[in-house]
Amino acid sequence: MLKFFKSYLKLKSKEEDEKRKEMIIKIISSVSLLLAFFCFSINLINYLSSKNYSALSPFFTFLIVMLFVIIWCLAHKRFLKLSAWISVLSYLIPTAYFSLRWGIDLPQGLLLYCIVIMISGILLSSRGSFIITIIIGIYLMSLTYLQKIKLITPDLYWTKNYQVRLDDSLVISLSFLIIATLIWLYNTEINRSLKRARKSEKALKLQKENLEKTVAKRTKEIKIIQKEKIIALYQMAEFGQLSAGMFHDLANPLTAVSLNLEQIKTNSLNKNPDCLKQALVAANKMSDFMNNIKKQIQHEDKLETFNINQEIFDCIEILDYKARINKIEIKLLDKNKKIYLFGLKIKFNQVILNLISNAIDSYLDIDKEKKIIIIKTILNTNYLIIEVKDFGQGIKSKNQHKIFEPFFTTKMAKKKGIGIGLYSSLHIARHCFEGNLKLHGKWGKGTLAQFNISKKMIKNEK
Questions:
Q1: How far apart are CA 78 and CA 357, in angstroms?
Q2: Predicted confidence (pLDDT) per residue in 160-207, tens digit
């Protein structure tokens, strides 16, 4: 028996909407079959037991029973549209016959019309339900008019001292059962639709989250690719800046070599013994610069321990002749103080040479009796500060925000600079010494350059 019911209720449709429609048709046809079979049984009993039987013929109710069996079989074979229309007509045609034979106000007929409208709304569509309702309304009004003009005469025996029997109550109760079943189907479909909508909303939300993750992942990948491209471009730009910096940094020691050799040429070597020494020091610095450039290209920067005052003194020696011919005095305060750093010595030299050379250039074309550059070192809580102070030309207020920009220079008119010195010095201060480079200047009052080096890079202090 259980196996029979499972095969009876088994849905053969594959798509979700078709399964839903097949289930509804099978439920309606099953309940309707139960009602039709009950009516057939009562009619058959009354027909056999009563001599004056005037109700519906048992043969007619048997046809209705067979019609609902056919509807179920059609639904089982997946002829859903055909079975839906036959289901509606199987209620509409008998009910129309009941109204014609026993009057439009027959209670069972009115109940069946309600069932027809509800079934058409569930199995067909809302539009189908309205069309069926209009058809029923026109049919009932037409019957009323025909009864009024006496063209048809319904059998109204059930209105004349007719005593309601138990089977009438059972038929009405079964009609109510069909209405309740239809309401249950309607509510079930609404809940199922809401459930599907929530499921779709949840799936859509999940899809949106996955899409956002995919977009974020792809964006991250694009950023990595862009970063790699930017790094490659930066390396090319860095090589260009390195070339420009090389010419700038070689200019100072090359000038020193040239000036000292010129001094030797003009005077005898015996009269200027220091000139040869200074020219050799400058030549050695050029050699160091070239080695440093080679290491930068090959990424072989060498960290070493060095005395900052000794390096500053070497830089002063390189630029000594340039300072002397311009009558500039360079003072290194606390020259005997020994502070050792662990870092890139040649980079340190680049910064100091740039700062001293700029200080010397600030006095050019200035008629001043006393020209002095003061260099001193200061230790505070976080930094070792090397100050290079001049009292020369200073910095115009309009140029304050441009002084660290690459290729910006105030010496272009005099062809004495290419504008890469301070830019490269700032880069070295930040990336090689974990510090900074600051310039404080006022036009006509001089400039104070501060080279800040992180105290973490100090090896020891003596």
A1: 97
A2: 766 666 666 766 777 777 778 777 877 777 777 788 788 888 888 888
pLDDT digits (tens, 9 = 90+) for 228-244: 665 455 446 545 544 55
* Three-class DSSP category at 384: strand
Residue 229 contacts residue 237 (beta carbons within 8 Å): no
In the block, residue with structure tokens 């979700």: 16
What is the three-class DSSP state of 306?
strand
Q: Is-contact 427 364, C-beta < 8 A?
A: no
Domains annotated for the chain, with CATH where assigned, are 13-163 (no CATH), 228-461 (3.30.565.10)
Give kind and range of the element (H or E) at residue 373. strand 372-379
Both tokens of 137, joined, read 């309304």
Q: CA–CA distance from 55 to each of 59, 107, 152, 319 (Å)?
A: 12, 15, 18, 132
Length of the chain: 462
| Gyration radius (Cα) of the chain, Å | 54
Q: How far is CA 103 from the centre of its chain?
A: 70
Question: What are the strands of the beta sheet with 446-454, ordered from one edge?
Answer: 329-332, 372-379, 383-390, 446-454, 436-442
**Inter-residue contact 142 to 51 (CB < 8 Å):** no
Rounded CA separation 420/146 (Å): 110
Distance CA 228, CA 222 (A): 10
Query: Could you write out the DSSP letters of every residue in 145-207?
Result: HHHHTTS-----GGGSSPPPPHHHHHHHHHHHHHHHHHHHHHHHHHHHHHHHHHHHHHHHHHH
DSSP 431-451: HHSS-EEEEEEETTTEEEEEE
CB count within 10 Å of CB 327 equals: 11
Q: Which two tokens stand for residue 386?
A: 């090397």
pLDDT in tens, 441-451: 888 888 999 99
